[in-house]
What does this fold into?
Amino acid sequence: MNWPLYFKNHKNKFFAVFFSALGIACFVGVAIMFFLQSTGDFGSQSYIIALINIVFELGLMIYLLSCNINNDNRAYMAIMMWIFWFFLEQFEDVVYGSAGLFSVLGSGDALLIGMSMAYLAFGIACFAVGLTLYLLVRRYMIGLDNNYRRIRILAIVYASLSGVALAFDLAITFISLGVAGWAMVLVALLTPIAELLIDVAIIFTLERLRRTY
It folds into this structure.
């Protein structure tokens, strides 16, 4: 097989699979550290909720990877599920998380409050752009719109907004953690990296779907 030619003709699929797999690898690291740090917490409500979140998010990542490997058009549904999940996760982090808005409001720390508000604002913007992106993709699929340039631009904007939101999340987490163990720092670092890699994979997934390979 002429691998350079194959890569040239299927580069979007290759990058979609690559970034999806890399995101999964990072998130598996998060899951492993979670289990290692949760010794003695089995059965608690917080443990069960965190476990459900990890399993569901990892399942979405694997679903997107599977769709890209198999050239499956259900990747559109995987993208939509990811957009909704990402927003709900951000909302939960900001409102109910240990470094959430309710927690930092009581601290009186203006920096943390401002960063939490910015995180929520970018999360809402991600959701709005992501929803618009999905609707445009659906219109493109059924032939009601042939302007793919808007879809590509929105996908890049969505990934960029997600990156900024995740940067705020990371900064808030590190400020709130203070001096923490290496495991907590690793989890705080790998989680947004994994999610950002999936956002990048979505861009290439949409390009793959447009070219149907």
In short: The mean pLDDT is 79. DSSP finds eight helices and no strands in the chain.
